[in-house]
Amino acid sequence: MFQQKRNQQTTTAGIDTLFKNFDFLRGIAKAILSQRSIRFSLLCALSVWTGWLVILGPGRAFGNMIENWEIAVTMAFGSMVAGGTSMGGGAVAFPVLTKWLQVPPDEAKVFSLAIQSIGMGAASLTIIAMKTKLDWRFIRWVSFGGVFGIVFGSAFLAPLLPPQVIKMCFTMMIASFGLILLTSNKKPKGQHLTILSWGRKEQIVSLIVGLVGGTISGLVGSGIDIFSFSVMVLLFGLSETISTPTSVILMAINAWTGFILHKFFLGDFIEPVSNYWLAAVPVVVVGAPTGAFLCSLMQRQTIVNIVLGLISIELVTSLILIPLDTTLILASVVAFFLFYSMYSWMYKKECSATKSKELPPDYNHD
């Protein structure tokens, strides 16, 4: 009798605990869904999923996803990186596709631009819906230059340069930035929440950043985001919490430009690239906004650490997976020191400019 009563009490306690856990999870879900930006992101995802199923049909849609499941899995992680950092989804997609999945570099580049037009586009809408602080002046001028840059990189420069040289030079560019970023973060300093002065000089610099960044995107499928991020942080002293979402918006605009260019003018958005794209679309429309939302919750130093970690992975995988010869090593060394010198100059110039003027109210020190 006593044992039966004890078992009954244990069962009752277990049920109460289960309901408490259910109430806790329901409370979390309610808190998440109360965010207007998350509701907006879910609506975007549902719209894309519906269009994906209606246009392709359930059989073809899921069949293609199963056939290209490696692409979908790759972009599940890549889209979160794209939406939450300045590295872009192409930084994940390009090396995985070319080295592990044996996709030709030109196809990997076109796929990277095409899929980022969806993922980064969805992340951008989420960033805007969250009313995240952005520097729209910088976005306008860099985007304008980026249009010309990506046309030049895709249509004129890419056919002339060996893919391995392009990839290693890109790796050296971000590695040199990572080294400067690591060094600068060892010396605590304030970070601006906006570009302190905006005149003709800043407009010209932004336009050049767009030209160079767009050219890089035209060569490897991403690049305007990390290059513009490096300029915002090192030259303008803009906080990483502002620079990151700004770079996401820039990559989204540049990716759309590149997608339109390859689809309607260069004509190389064809099978199997289009099949890869269709397999990844329903994944990135969730992953990229999730990355953008998580980034909004992070502290500046956390963002810096993640970027440094991704740069390290990019460097190590490139050195392991890309066969190095004398020409490639020479090109890599030249690219590293060229970009390192440029980034060093930016950082020193920003430091001297900060010391020469009184800090305004929108100055942040983490």
Structure description:
By secondary structure, this protein is an all-alpha fold. The protein has one domain. It has 14 helices and two strands; from the N terminus they run ααααααααβααααααβ. It has a two-stranded antiparallel sheet.
Core attributes:
81% helix, mainly alpha
Helix and strand topology:
Layout: H1 2-33, H2 36-56, H3 58-67, H4 69-84, H5 90-100, H6 105-129, H7 136-157, H8 163-185, E1 191-192, H9 200-220, H10 224-234, H11 240-266, H12 273-296, H13 300-321, H14 326-355, E2 363-364
Antiparallel strand pairs: 1-2
Give a nutshell description of this structure.
With 366 residues, the protein is mainly alpha-helical. It has helices at residues 2-33, 36-56, 58-67, 69-84, 90-100, 105-129, 136-157, 163-185, 200-220, 224-234, 240-266, 273-296, 300-321, 326-355; strands at residues 191-192, 363-364.
Principal-axes shape call: globular
Rg for CA atoms: 23 Å
Largest sheet strand order: 1-2
User: How much helicity do the residues have?
Assistant: over 70%
Fraction in beta strands:
under 5%
Reading the helices and strands in chain order gives HHHHHHHHEHHHHHHE
Low-confidence stretches: none
Number of strands: 2
Helical element count?
14
- For the terminal residues, how far apart are their CA atoms? 64 Å
Largest sheet: 2 strands, antiparallel
Rounded mean pLDDT is 86
Q: Structural class, judged by helices and strands?
A: mainly alpha
Total separate domains: 1
